[in-house]
Amino acid sequence: MSFPRYENYKDSGVEWLGEVPEHWGVAPLKRGFEVRLGKMLQPESSSSHDELLPYLRAANIQWYGVDVSDIKLMWFSQKERSQLTLQADDLLISEGGDVGRSALWRGEIDNCHFQNSINRVRARESNYGRYLYYWISVIKDKGYIDVLCNKSTIAHFTAEKVQTVPVPFPAPIEQQSIAAFLDRETAKIDALIAEQQRLIDLLKEKRQAVISHTVTKGLNPDVPMKDSGIEWLGEVPEHWDVWNVRRIAISVQTGGTPSSEPPSTELDDGCVWYTPGDFGEELRLTDSARKITRAVAASGEAKLFPKNSVLIVSIGATLGKVGYVEQTSSSNQQINAIIPNNLIDGYFLAYSLSVKAEVMRFLSNASTIGIMNQEKTKEILLALPPMIEQTDITIFLDNETAKIDTLTNEAKTAITLLQERRTALISAAVTGKIDVRDLVSANPVEQAA
User: What's residue 151's pLDDT?
Assistant: First the structure.
């Protein structure tokens, strides 16, 4: 859909902004909004008149809104309560961390205040906070805020810097029209993005289900079945075995970090050295972010795993993540390596283990910090078909998962395009490249209806 443009434009006086509609003004943010930094953390009361009240931190400020799932309390004096209380439609801007990340306050919590990691921006003279929210998102996306904050060092978007941000100022009623238009159009785009994300989630579930069914039931739906004796595994083909890793592995080893010459990101011709960060959606592991030198690998200081090994993340948030290696490799101490014997194909083993993350978390006592040591890894149970069936299963799963992955990538591409469309539309509206005044009512009450 194409949108109309304004009839006349003028130079904004800001190089990166370019032209704006002729009747718009361009001025520092402080001309239309009041900016105040929040209070430094005060863990104890200094007066009997202080009150312990909820307050927001930068972590609570997200582009989608204010996250109130984790709200802290702090002492505020009577003066601070009057100065730092939040009102509906206050714009909250992160002062540090991800500088410029913003959200509008909608009164989610009564009598709430804010810490000094947040700038509160409050509209003056009928200016409109939600219009400014969209403008801040544009200059954040374009990198202007990072430049203003000297993000090559520790960035701080101080109140003084916020006040100096150049802002295009349409008339207040026009600000409301632009914000209402963007509320409506971005909601449509967000709904389409959510649909694509739901599709991705369903495809991910289907992928796991296909793998899980195939490595436990096989490819022949008519084959006689037997009880595996394991509740979570259920029935398996009658001619299959059910063994633990101990019986199908030459050994289970744990990686390590060489001290004489640490792994480096600068090596092009070294030996791959995996960490949990190298594990992605692909089952086959190829390159690694860091490598060890050939000399370190040859010295025996680093543990080397032969090709056809299966690597498992054994600690941390990605515990149970599995990868298959087709080359001699090494890893850090967060990874266990299973070197399979001649009873099992390493690639089949990788597929089989890739759907057992929940089993591994259970074995690792993951209610605390879960750790899958070598002994626990050896106790993982799996269904074991004859070798020829293992090969057939891996070929089948490669084909089926490739189809699902193609659909998943198409959905991800659609999300990327929709996000680009969303960003471009916001930018065009708040910089006056399109005229949306006649496309939507400026009355927020009418919009809500």
Answer: 63
